[in-house]
Amino acid sequence: MRRLVLILAVLGVIATGCGGGDDISIDGEWARNSPMRADRGAVYMNIESSDGDRLLSASVDPSISASVEVHETVPAQGETNEDGMAMMVMQEVQAIELPAGETVVLEPGGLHIMLIDIAAPLEIGEKFDLTLDFETAGEMVLEVEVREEAP
After folding, report:
1. pLDDT single digits (tens) 78-93
2. Where does 24-147 sit in CATH, by number?
3. Element (H, E) at 76
4. For 57-73, what is each residue's pLDDT tens digit?
5. What is the pTM of this model?
6. Which residues on neighbouring strands pair with residue 81, listed in sequence order?
7. Tally of CB atoms within 10 A around 50
8. How far is CA 40 from CA 10, 105, 121, in A?
9. Where along the chain do its domains lie?
């Protein structure tokens, strides 16, 4: 009997340590429509992780975009416009932190997924699959609709 209890205890520790406990919720996913000559596009959404996680990367089929990066919009160092306001630039980030229980918003002017060298303009109503890669939760595939504004 002691042996059975020990085996069950060990199996319980192994099962607990295997991950999979992270629950990712995503809503409001959309991509902005792009002008005819644009070579980039952006995807936005709300992400919540019950246990805390990190969004490491994203990808799409090459028929949509040649590459995909996780980006943030930040003030440019020392650059201002004619009104004295800081100029904004986009830069790649290594990961997006997802604190446990908090909603992280990917939105215009902030964090977002950048589609680089899009194959064709993103037109309203089109849909495509976007794969997100999380540090703990692994891969998740979303269907993203191209819209003029957030849902």
Report:
1. 777 777 777 778 889 9
2. 2.60.40.1890
3. strand 65-80
4. 999 999 999 999 999 98
5. 0.79
6. none
7. 14
8. 51, 20, 9
9. 24-147
